[in-house]
Design goal:
Rossmann fold; 2 domains; 8 helices; 26% strand; ATP hydrolysis activity; nucleotide-binding; ATP-binding; ABC_transporter-like_ATP-bd; ABC transporter ATP-binding protein
Length: 273
């Protein structure tokens, strides 16, 4: 995807959030360009959900700043779609009820888009959400978020509880929706295979800090796997090094999974010192 404008989708500077003595996010500074599908990766407790909640304006930072679509979080609610991990829907309401509710709550609601997505997904408008499968509920939640026609779509591990087939369907719908809307999407996930499949921008969190961020292609080009890292090499972890390496070292390309794991290891090791 390409940039759809000059205003960054999300910018943070020194962003920190504490819960008592526990630091959930520390000195986080990053810039997410518009028009990207961003994979937000990290272990449990890395600060992923905290970062997304700060971006949505659900919680306030302890220090530092965050700007969403050029403004303070919470002031662009109509332009931000959010799908939480439990993909919340109302069990007693039908699919059609959810669409009517979305139309009443969102000024830019696209009824035609919502109806088209529901039909494409094979959802019965009369069916109560409580009787849908987990994958269908996730698809309904995504449809509701996307029918707002947001500029930024934030998804906090929405496929964590889904089986492989439902997960594949959700990701396909996500890409179709983002492409049609021309939106930026931030997808938090533990599943590196999903990130590799749909994301073109990467943010790696570990120990509450940003360990790596950038476009996937550029990051892969900037790293190599070297059987025996030469002296002076910028070793990330193990055989993964950053930057150019001398000829004859047996350097080869690094896979996305290797890259992410190397930075997760480095971030975890630094956090225990």
């Amino acid at each position: 995807m390409v940039d759809s404008g000059t205003t960054a989708a999300l910018v943070t500077e020194g962003l920190t959030r504490r819960y008592g003595r526990r630091v959930a996010l520390a000195d986080c500074s990053l810039r997410i360009p518009p028009g990207r599908v961003v994979g937000l990766v990290g272990p449990n407790g890395a600060g992923k959900s905290t970062l997304l909640q700060l971006a949505c304006g659900l919680i306030a930072p302890t220090s530092g700043s965050v700007r969403v679509l050029g403004a303070r979080p919470g002031t662009r609610l109509a332009r931000v779609g959010f799908v939480a991990q439990d993909t919340p829907v109302y069990a007693t309401l039908s699919v059609a009820d959810h669409l009517r509710l979305g139309a009443r709550l969102n000024p830019a609601w696209d009824a035609a888009f919502a109806a088209r997505r529901v039909a494409a997904l094979g959802l019965d408008p009369r069916q109560r959400a409580g009787r849908l499968s987990g994958g269908q509920r996730a698809q309904l939640a995504l449809t509701l978020a996307a029918a707002k026609r947001p500029e930024l779509l934030i998804l906090d591990e929405p496929v964590a509880a889904l089986d492989p087939l439902a997960r594949e369907g959700f990701l396909r719908t996500l890409i179709e929706s983002v492409t049609e809307l021309g939106a930026t999407a931030v997808l938090s996930s533990h599943l590196l295979s999903d990130v590799e499949r749909v994301c073109d921008h990467l943010v790696v969190l570990a120990g509450g800090r940003v360990q790596l961020a950038g476009d996937v292609t550029a990051l892969l080009d900037a790293h190599h796997r070297v059987p025996s890292p030469p002296a002076g090499a910028d070793v990330v972890h193990g055989a993964v090094v950053r930057g150019p390496v001398p000829a004859g070292t047996g350097a080869g390309p690094v896979r996305l999974e290797e890259l992410v794991l190397a930075y997760l290891h480095r971030g975890t090791e630094r956090g225990t010192r």
